[in-house]
Amino acid sequence: MAIKEGRYTSPSGNVYVFSYGDVSRDTELKTAVYTYPMRDGARVQHQGRGAMTFPLACLFHGSDCMERASAFEEALIERGAGELQHPVYGIFRVKPTGNIVREDRLVTGLNQSTVTVTFTESIENDDDNTMNEVAANTIDANHDAFENTAVEDFAAAIASIESVSEQLAIEAALEMQTQSIIDNLQPMAMSDRRTFADWLASANELQSSITQIFNRGMAAARSIEDIYVRALNVGRLTLRLMRLPARLSTTLASKIAGYSALTARLINQFRNDPFEIRKIKNAFTTATLGISGAVASISTGAAISTAEAAASPGNNAVQSAASGGTASGIRAGISQDDEGGSYSAAVRNSGTASREEAVEIAANILEMMDSLMAFSDTKIETLNESSASIQAQSAKDIYIDANAASYIALKELVQQSAQLIINASFALPMQRIFTLDRDRQVIELCAELYGTVDYVDNFIISNNLSIDEIELLPAGTKVMHYV
Predict the structure, then answer these.
(1) What's the CA gap between 195 and 303, in Å, rounded?
(2) Do 267 and 207 form a contact (C-beta atoms < 8 A)?
């Protein structure tokens, strides 16, 4: 019997060389055979081939055969796809399937260990967790790209303002915008002490930096380049102030509410225009920075938080139902030793409990982007309103988009965030609401729904039960759970 060598590369990249004898492969055909009464023959439907499998008896020889066989077994247990280099049939991307059988022939075959395994060809490009991790990392990278372009547009607009009266108006508008950001986002920022200290320091630095953009006491010595650099700092601090709360461990519903309210407030401030900045060249960009920053922050925060909960190892039917939750390889903030699975901790962080809620979150961030687009369209209306009072200026110079880079970056960020949320939602449980037909106790009902009483607190919170309802749920009460 001719003995040849084969190689298996595990998902972690380790290579294992083994010997084997006779080989075979099994190819499944995707066919269906239909027969009919009172008629000979059959109709066969053929839709190509299915799985191709390679059963192998992998042989290890020598004094270290048992150690090598054990290492090979560990490699076969690794999750993910490996590579089988078959000397007869070629190279295939495979995953071990079925049972692994180990034989150590201590009597009949000294210094020989055999591991019998079936490799099945896999057509996927990568395992799901890795694909989701790349998607989540892409969201962060896109957010950084948006911030860079948005800050540059903002700084260019600020540097183009020349008169002292216009500078004063812009400063006042920026101070009002900063105060609105602080008022709307501070409750969320306070949910984490360490982050809140950092956030508060950024807020104080931003307020101080706004008053120093033009620094009229040294106006004669200050160049446009100097103003541009100071404006860059103000822009980055503004976006940082909005980005931090979006990643904290608060519910996504509260985040959506907070950022939606902030966006509406900033839009209304510009429309009311108490400082008449709409007549100032490029002033529209100063308002756009805050609004687009809010949309970008909630889009990124919602997408990554939703993905983290769906990717948690404990995301199965019972734990999902009890805890509520979202998919990416990122597991920041997910406790691996949380009883009942790390899923519960992830959900407490994300606040996304069901597939329906995730889809609603995606719709909300798309609506916020639509609001920003509608606001941007008012540039033309404002231009028409102001043109009579700005005879000395060329109409085309009032509101200038240096380029479309920041808008394109934001739109791509929002669309990819919504797509990641939708993709992650398929890993989430579905929400079910039913009406009690008799009085029930919460503990008894949780045990019936989930097979455990570990998630009573989650059930109480998700249903917003009162003290009386915690004691006894009366017949006719509508309750929500996850399946």
Answers:
(1) 20
(2) no
User: What is the domain extent for residue 372?
Assistant: 128-425
Q: Are residues 286 and 249 in the same domain?
A: yes
Pick the last residue of a domain from 121, 153, 176. 121
How many of the other CB atoms lie within 10 Å of CB of 40? 6
Half-sphere exposure of 65 (CA within 13 A, CB side): 20
Same structural domain, 406 and 435: no
Torsion angle, alpha carbons of 384, 385, 387, 390, to 10: -150
Residues 87 and 144 in one domain: no
Which whole-number Å values give the CA distances from 94 to 8, 23, 116, 373, in the listed order?
9, 16, 15, 47
pLDDT digits (tens, 9 = 90+) for 38-91: 788 888 888 888 889 999 999 998 888 999 999 999 999 998 889 999 878 889
| Distance of alpha carbon 244 from alpha carbon 57, whole angstroms | 55
Report the b/e string of 253-277 with b at 16+ CB within 10 A.
Answer: eebbebbbebbebbbebbeeeebeb
Quote the number of domains for the chain: 3
Q: Cα dihedral sign for 464, 467, 470, 473?
A: negative
